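hey m, so remember when u said the tokens were messed up on ur end? i reran from scratch. heres the input so u can diff it against urs
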Amino acid sequence: MVSHSWVHLVVIILATLSIFFCLYEFYEVIRLKKYKRILLKRQKSKEMKNSKIMKRIEIISHALNKWDILIIFSNIFQIIGSITGFIEQKIMNGSMDKYRDWIVFENLQAGFGQPVFYIIQRDNTLTILIRGSSEPIDWVTDLTIIEQEDSEGYYFHMGFLLAAQYVLRKSLPYIKNFTGPIYLFGHSYGGSTASVLHILASREFPDKDINTIAYDPAPAFEEDALENYGSKLACVSYDHDLVSSMSVLNAVSFLRVLDPQIKYQTGDEISKRIRQVILKFPNYTSYGYLETIYSKVDYIVPIFTSFLAGETQLHVQYMNGCVYKFTPDATQVTDLEAYRVEPSSQDVLDLSLSCITDHGTQLIPDLIESLLPKVTQ
């Protein structure tokens, strides 16, 4: 287990360094602006265009753009976000220590389409636990939103399909030789990967008892891909979680409500509109997936414009399987079916006031005992 005092010390040191960095950037802005005012006065007093002064003003203006106040705050939140991801990874790795004797395989190095995950074997059960997004490379996988048709003609979110294929390749020897029930768990990116893995593993091993609970997963595949495996897959989220509604089709539905003329707009105009929506979230840079969307929006928008122009079709829209949407007070569930919803009802991007805070892991310890009997029956 990671020592809490050690974790706190690292946070304090890194936070202190980031504060000094921020103060230094403010100092640079003040210094450069003062220098620019002096140059402008010199230029005005001479009443002529001095090429040397103009060149210096141009350089200073360029520097001030670089040290823009918004960028300063973006930098500071990037640092804090990196600290958060680092600590989260250490805590998760540390929290697995109590299962150390039962871990038969672990991948601790995240890569593109390669999530951190653990395989645990205990009491005649095999559990595959997949971590959510915690590092920039995870968010790159999240945003690989191009749809990929598989060998059976079904469409998947390419990033999650690659991640599930990777986990399956590493897990094959353990699943193949195991005769008891198999459980797949994951949150967010991990939940999306687990839901796709549920399909791939069920196809590969139709006689295995494979049961999956995906927490706050982003939509990962079209409904028809689930075929006969839906009763063994539960997708769970809070009522207004953003990520579980985050698909291109749902985003298009939201933008159409926002602006019915969206299909007539250029890619640049749509990019600007998406960035405006993201900027409405306070401290959006502290949420890795929002920051990544903001920075990669020019990569995403061509998929929007191609769909709006009727040039391509899209199939992945919402969570599938047994979908449950819980309210924040649902810590003890007596009537599980009361929270079940139709997957197709989740057909628009949810940008409610609580859509960020609803994307959390609070549900996991409280609801797992209620969900497991339902999934495994």
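this time it looks ok to me. The chain has three domains: 4-79, 109-247+316-376, 248-308. if urs says something different then somethings off w ur setup not the seq
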